């Protein structure tokens, strides 16, 4: 008797092709979230608002992500992977239209918050979908590929956004319009790609409740160190996706939008590559390397501010980015190792909420300080505070791993 493969629904991509289209959708959606990074200085120049306003605009995005992760980040487990992805893309399309048609500060706040809501819905759904599509196409072969691709799509996309925004702002006409027009086209294509992908979760009824958060009571010291690690890592991300272009334009007298986009891109690209490249390396070595890289990189940022050396600012950010990627990955690994498998979802949820607090609060504090102090001492103080936090958290986690 001949055995035939099951027919897939008309218009649905095979799992192998859908894996790569889903990765592309994830990349594009994350890139959209940071398209405005090199444009903030242009908004400032046009509207004359102070730098601390940029931190508030950025913080609304992080607040949207955290709220969305907590409320609906887990619903794709029972309603399917595709509906949350479509809702997320719809939110980003709405945000893109707001950026395009109503580019005033109040609407920028709304647009960034809506963007954050979309990211919180998408991140868990897309990451899980990639793993399931890969297994559907390849079985148990090379099981680490989906996680690596998800990392590149997530962090790499966040880094790609400023580069694309900077290139368009530097060379394309109407720099506050063209990036969003291109984004809307790409996001519309992403909707088509999601619709064409197969669903990998069977819907089942379940009463909604917020994501459960888990803090392991027996290992609170190690958990606190891991939380401090992700907090510090995301504080660096927050600096480079919000204030770095303003520092470059103001303190280093670099008006180039291309440079304003390329610097955050370099930080995020190194972070993504480091996570993938160091995968086979023992976690303890990752933590030691991450701690050293972040402390050295942050010292470079501080010295760069003091001597007004743009090249050192870029180099320090890139070295810190390597540490950020490793520290984030290792911190999540340490945190999830503290509890049995069934409780790891709650621990991850808690860690991501801590991470987005790290993305928000330090940047807001920097913005508040900039209202009263010059930029140089503020940047030096930020670098010193995060370096001390990392220097304490990294060795504590390394000791936990060694034990």
UniProtKB/TrEMBL annotation:
Keywords: Cell membrane, Membrane, Transmembrane, Transmembrane helix, Transport. PROSITE patterns: MFS. Its main location: membrane. It is found in: Cell membrane. SUPFAM superfamilies: MFS general substrate transporter. The chain crosses the membrane at residues 17-43, 49-72, 84-103, 109-131, 143-168, 180-201, 222-246, 258-278, 285-307, 313-335, 347-372, 378-399. GO terms for molecular function: transmembrane transporter activity. It comes from the Bacteria. GO terms for cellular component: plasma membrane. Residues 17-403 form the Major facilitator superfamily (MFS) profile domain. This is MFS transporter. It comes from Amnibacterium kyonggiense. The lineage of its organism: Bacteria, Bacillati, Actinomycetota, Actinomycetes, Micrococcales.
